[in-house]
Write a structure and sequence with these properties.
Shape: flat
Strand order of the largest sheet: 2-1-4-5-6-7
Structural class: alpha/beta
CATH class of the domain at 8-147 and 558-614: Alpha Beta
Number of helices: 15
Largest sheet: 6 strands, antiparallel
Order of helices and strands: EEEHHEEEHEHHEHHHHHHHHEEHEHE
Strand content: 5-15%
Distance between the termini: 41 Å
CATH topology of the domain at 8-147 and 558-614: Rossmann fold
Radius of gyration: 45 Å
Length: 635
């Protein structure tokens, strides 16, 4: 037969108590039937199989808890591996794995076994990871940050007795719709790890993009507040111009030192008169800036007072409207001035009851509305003006320190010039050297800006690179989604048509099964419907449950992309008060369907009433269990 990957098959199960074997049986490819009387331990053996393969939350019977270990030889894609697990009530027991046959493992020292925990760690794989890797399977992400485990997969592969009314999944204490959806998608091959990896990468890149955007915005915000030029593309040219000017000044300094002569223009440029003019200009600039700051603060204060007045007028206007609405139809019995009796107005009169003047509510309302709109326009304009003035005030505050520094520098130079005498040549040399120093400082600052510009350029390039990669991932995700939906539809149609065909082979006990043309199922909702119905008799529920799992196995033999490992374990064939004839028919349907498979597979089921057609060595494994010869030879 063809070997489809993945394929998982049990070859041998051995259960130990006090270093003594209490159960030992071999299994084969194809159909394996465990049979025996009711309450003779058939379910216990199936529980041991599932538990040794990685299932959790097994409802152990007291007899089973007397055992110490269970060991199983399994074929993973045809390669023999031996696994061993301690039996106790503690959750999440580790799995011991020997990468070889049962006979080799039995002779090997304990150091040859590897221990794998239920959960992964930073330095060690979990046993789910180890066995999935051995079957060339990728991992699947489940609910939250957890990964799908063998326990979750066995919730579908093992249909046990306690989960009679759970048509797809074995009952689990920690269940969620997302986990069920992921497990179903994974086993049917719909789940695409490429899609998950692409989605994960996209989420990570989007986080990086947000971080880069925030970093760039912060940089440009700081540059704007410090009023630095953000035209970084011109920095190189500015550096060249300043270096050229510095070289000219250096040449001039060298000439002055060599020739010791100063031109008339230079004398004028470096003289006290020029320095005094610069000092006066610096004082004036600082004084004007401070004056503008003072005027700006006063203007802002006045504007805020004006805004408060406008807001007060708006409130007063609203209050006056409320008051007029409240007192507008107030009738006076006596005049408040002369206390004479006021004649009541005529009926339906629109005049004031006191002064008899006409009342025009519509005109008054229009007037109030006009005044309110004018006040709101003034309030909006004043608020915007305050914001502009505050921005200008902040700019002036930022400029003051530089103005003060320039003034102090010029004052120091002027003081030095006033207290010391220097010849024209010395003054020229000092001024030229000072100019060279200023140019050097400016060039240094531009180089710093150039480094900042390069950092910004790299951030922008990285952002563009991330954007391009996200666009690529979007296209890939869209394509993978389409492929996934196509595969999902293919699997659903195959499983539904197979299940319909199997149900129609059942005895004529359930009308919906006899037709079985419209079949829907959902891993997410853990639901199977036939002809729009999900509620059936107990025995029909058992038939539907087992045949659905058989349909999954059958579809996996024809769709190589499915990850269901061509293994199925069924318990409770006769549950739900099923009549013997129907039980026989169910067993025969299972075997007849399996005979159609053209690839390696394994199906294990237990029954207390084996069909006479199936009671032979081709299907039956282990001995027949009874109340006097139970599955576990504890005594």
């Amino acid at each position: 037969m063809t070997l489809l990957k993945p394929t998982l098959a049990l070859r041998r199960l051995c259960i130990h108590k006090d270093n003594r074997v209490v159960f030992n049986s071999t299994f084969h490819n194809g159909v394996n039937i465990i049979h025996g009387h009711n309450s003779s331990g058939k379910t216990t053996i199936l529980d041991f199989i599932a538990y040794t393969l990685g299932a959790e939350y097994i409802p152990w019977k007291q007899e089973a808890l007397l055992c110490d270990w269970s060991t199983a030889e399994v074929a993973l894609n045809g390669k023999l591996v031996t696994v061993r697990r301690a039996v106790n009530n503690r959750p999440l027991n580790p799995l011991y794995i020997y990468w070889g046959s049962f006979e080799e493992a039995d002779k090997a020292p304990i150091t040859s076994w590897e221990i794998f925990g239920f959960r992964r760690s930073s330095t060690k794989l979990s046993f789910t990871q180890a066995l999935l890797l051995a079957m060339d399977l990728s991992e699947a992400q489940g609910d939250g940050a957890s990964n799908i485990t063998l326990h979750q997969l066995l919730r579908v592969l093992y249909a046990d007795q306690p989960s009679l009314h759970s048509p797809i999944f074995r009952t689990d204490a920690f269940d969620s719709a997302l986990n069920r959806e992921t497990v179903g998608s994974y086993l049917t091959g719909v789940y695409d790890d490429k899609l998950y990896v692409a989605q994960l990468e996209k989420r990570e890149l989007e986080k990086q993009m947000q971080s880069l955007d925030a970093e760039l915005k912060s940089i440009f915000r700081v540059l704007a507040k410090s009023e630095q030029n953000t035209g970084f593309e011109l920095i190189g040219q500015e550096i060249l111009n300043l270096e050229r000017e510095r070289d000219i000044s250096n040449a001039e300094l060298a000439r002055l030192r060599k020739e010791r002569t100063v031109s008339a223009d230079i004398k004028k440029a470096v003289g006290d008169i020029n320095l005094r003019a610069q000092l006066d200009a610096a004082k004036k600039a600082l004084s004007e800036a401070q004056d503008q700051i003072s005027r700006g603060e006063v203007d802002i204060t006045d504007s805020k007072k004006f805004v408060e007045e406008l807001e007060l007028r708006l409130r007063t206007l609203d209050e006056s409207s409320t008051t007029r609405n409240y007192f507008g139809k107030l009738a006076f019995a006596f005049c408040p001035c002369c206390l004479s009796e006021v004649q009541p107005p005529e009926k339906e009169s629109t005049n004031c009851s006191l002064c008899k003047s006409p009342l025009n509510a519509v005109a008054a309302d229009a007037q109030v509305l006009r005044m309110r709109n004018e006040l709101r326009i003034q309030l909006s304009e004043s608020t915007a003006l305050i914001a502009e003035r505050e921005t200008e005030l902040q700019r002036l505050h930022n400029a003051v320190p530089a103005l003060r520094q320039r003034l102090k520098s010029l004052e120091k130079r002027y003081a030095e010039s006033s207290t010391t005498w220097s010849s024209d040549i010395e003054t020229a040399i000092e001024e030229t050297a000072r100019k060279i120093g200023g140019l050097e400082q400016e060039i240094k600052g531009l180089y710093e800006n150039q480094r900042l510009a390069e950092a910004i350029r790299q951030l922008q390039a990285k952002r563009e690179e991330l954007g391009n990669r996200i666009n690529e991932l979007d296209s890939s995700i869209e394509s993978l989604f389409y492929t996934q939906e196509t595969r999902k539809q293919k699997v659903q149609e195959e499983v539904a048509s197979t299940l319909g065909r199997l149900l129609r082979q059942d005895l004529n006990r359930q009308a919906e099964f006899s037709r079985a043309g419209n079949i829907q199922f959902s891993f997410t909702d853990n639901m199977v419907s036939v002809e729009g119905s999900t509620q059936f008799s107990e025995s029909s529920t058992v038939v539907l449950r087992h045949l659905f799992h058989l349909a999954l196995l059958s579809a996996s033999t024809r769709i190589p992309e499915m990850r269901l490992p061509r293994l199925l374990i069924l318990d409770g064939i006769e549950d739900g008060g099923m009549e013997l004839e129907r039980s026989y028919r169910l067993q025969e349907i299972i075997v007849e369907e399996c005979s159609r498979f053209e690839c390696d597979y394994q199906l294990i089921f237990s029954t207390s009433q084996i069909s006479p057609k199936l009671e032979n060595d081709a299907y039956v494994v282990a001995r027949q269990f009874s109340e006097n010869s139970r599955s576990l030879a504890i005594l």
